[in-house]
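PT: before anyone asks, these are the final sequences, not the draft ones from last week. 969 residues across everything. Please model them as a single complex and drop the result in this thread when it's through.
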Amino acid sequence: MNFPILSSLILLPTIGALFIFFVRSSNSQYQSSKYVALFITIANFFLSLYLWIVFDKSIVDFQFVEEREWISGFVNYKVGVDGISILFILLTTFVTPICVITVNATIKNRLKDFLIAILILETFMIGVFCSLDLVVFYLFFEAGLIPMFLIIGIWGGERRVYSAFKFFLYTLLGSVLMLVAIISIYWITGTTDVIKLYELGIDAKYQNLLWLAFFSSFAVKTPMWPVHTWLPDAHVEAPTAGSVLLAAILLKMAGYGFIRFSLGLFPDASLYFVPLVYTLSLIAIIYTSLVALMQEDMKKLIAYSSVAHMGFVTLGIFTMTQQGIEGSIFQMISHGLVSAALFLCVGVVYDRLHTRLINRYGGLVSIMPKYAIVFMVFTLGALGLPGTSGFIGEFLVLMGAFKKNILVATIASLGVILGAAYMLWLYKRIIFGKLINEEVKKMVDLKRFEIVTLWLLVLPIIFFGFYPEPLINSIEVSVANMIDMNDLGKINKLALGE
Amino acid sequence: MENLELIIPELFISIMIMFLLIFGVFKKNSSQLVYNLTTVSLVAALALIINLDTQIQSSLFNNSYNIDNLARFMKILLILSGVFVMLSSSKYIQISKISKIEYPILILCSILGMMVMISSNDLIVFYMGLELQSLALYVLASFNRDNLLSTESGLKYFVLSALSSGLLLYGCSLIYGFSETTNFNQIMVNTKEVEYGLTFGIVFILVGLAFKISAVPFHMWAPDVYQGSPTSVTVFFALLPKIAALTVFIRFLYIPFYELGDQWQMIVIFLSIASMVFGAVAAIGQKNLKRLIAYSSISHMGYALAGLSTGTTQGVQSSITYITIYLVMNLAFFSCLFMLKRNDEYYENIDDLSGLSKNHPLLSLSLLVVLFSLAGIPPLAGFFAKFYIFVAVINEKMYFLAIVGLLATVIAAFYYLRIIKIIYFDPEKEKFESKHNLGLKFTLAASTFFILAYFIYPSGIVDIISQININ
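LR: through. Structure below.
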């Protein structure tokens, strides 16, 4: 197989962006640039779908590996996928076209620039998930800041400048230490190639510091408590498409990084720091759930719920069990879909009433029944009702956690209850109740493109809720290999004194 | 008879200086013609340097003048930047009414001085080159003599620079006194053991050099001079003297004082950390773009010094890479500055950029690329510059320097982002003129393209620079 399918996946959106950039702009052609973007992103989705189909799920090795000399004698451009990364690529290419569809209603000015930003961002996101070299990974990981900064800053709400700066500087500060760690790894082992590093392993005496450096970056990006404060701001101010991409994919980069690098490269240190991660995750789950209960702003509420859900993800990853890690990945995919959908739902009503305050709504069920249905599905997905994809993820994570530490698992289960509380309460306040606000009565139900985008998200949420097999199937071998390779199982037994 | 063909570029420039001077005096109203001829002669000098046999590593005049890979690369860099500076600023000097025949000739003089500095392998030759470039620069800084700020900056630069030259000369005399020679290689042979006099000599020389590249705490002149000088001179200040001074820095540290690494390493690390942090912090409050870029260049010099402080060949190479990319970024930035023109008046305050992106999308995009690159965000060239530095620094286990440097980039990112915010997020103002001359457009396009596309083939420059070997 010589066709560089991964590089095409990475480059295709950029080519689309260049195309849109060079086509002369005029108002009438705004629409056509939208169709170009839509076409490119959908083509990319089908390309990644094809990738998923031809991907051999029974092999542990990285597949479709491409390698090319880049910085001579130092770093090679190397990409490849395994069962874990392929799902994230699929998620990225699935969510991006949906974002492109939403620009209809939300982006009033400079549509062309917006589309270019989204397409460039897609390139970087896919690049993060398939790079097999630490420097290449860092490059994509950091580069994503530029388009996101502009998306929040140019098309955002009132406090967009503050939020954009906070987003950029927080994540940059977190990441610089990772760069030091990456260069140190190069001098310790002589390579930054992830596959070689998996084989070589890193001396245990260096692992703790390196782990912390990577952790500082991923913790900010995840985001974990107490460095999560940029997320609510960024979400609230970002335009709908920006929030969707941020919640659905950018946050997953960190979770992916934890699995691929923290666990994969520093197994000893990961074990050493398990109590730290457990503590922070539990605080995130409980504390941010409580904070979410208090929110007046819909987007802020969902943003805090994202922090709580990502708490489950980090918890699951660091149980270092097959179920825990699989559950985390599943949770990330599911949260990617559900949070994207929830932000879209907020976008739908925001476009009509131009407020995100929960108390301005109420009684929507009688005037927007179609909206009420899809919103209900997403609410249930977010709180993890059996039959939605959210349930599988949380269930597996909790199963992994119960294997390792009953106390932690119990506290985390409380988080599930709190999650149900704030989501249902949100639903109740918006959809049910009396129609008090006169302006709400004038709101119209879902338009056609909104129906398309929302139902596109309903389907996988329910489908994977009932039939998680395709996803689990795809990650199973890779996760098992990850655990075997790093002797996580053995370490586990030692830790338990068996 | 010495092998004079190796210094043909220098000879050529000297002859051109004399010819242009006479030509300009005798032919009336020839300022524009002299300017263009200067540009052409720079291009010719560039061709002459490239044409030199790259295999030859030799030294002339009793081993006091070096023609090696370092000198060759730095001279190419120097003259190339000179050509682009001339191309981009031709319109500016006409409009600012400083288009006189002396202007391009002074620029040629100072470039000649820098070439001598770059090749010098002897204290006296080095000092001669330094003074030749400095004297020309003093005049250039105050070239707009009707402008109060410009004359002030010229005077300030002269006084402070003369002081630093004095210190430098005193250091040279100490070194001569303790090593009995002025030749760099001989100094290395004669100074095997540490003596107080030598240490003092090193400190004085480092102070003088730090002044020339405006490293903290010898940076005080830079913001005022950058702001006061005509912008065409500021871009010259920001680019060319840095190349020459950095080369001299490399030569001093790695040839005569190489054995005394313990003596200077701490000093250079201090200079580096102080410049990185101070440059980043002090730039935050600035309102004038030229002043801001002065602080930013202080900070950038800190990174270049960080590479030098490692004491390894890799460190030197990373510094040279850094300065190369730094030059391109600053060139692009100043080209953008030259485009902020409305009714024959140039604007240089940050607030003037407000909402630029709505009226001038392409210009704003270039500025966006340049500023993110200056901030060191991947995948732009500025990231690679910093990356090489940190690779060299971490290789020497100097983690403290690396972490401070990276934290300083985060601080610096703030003020670069602030400019981007003003360009992209703020309400628009009146339009600027959108007609510019070809040279300026070409400079901006070429440098922006370099910054954007550097990541596609980063090995190109590194391969060339990896041939530079000091010892």
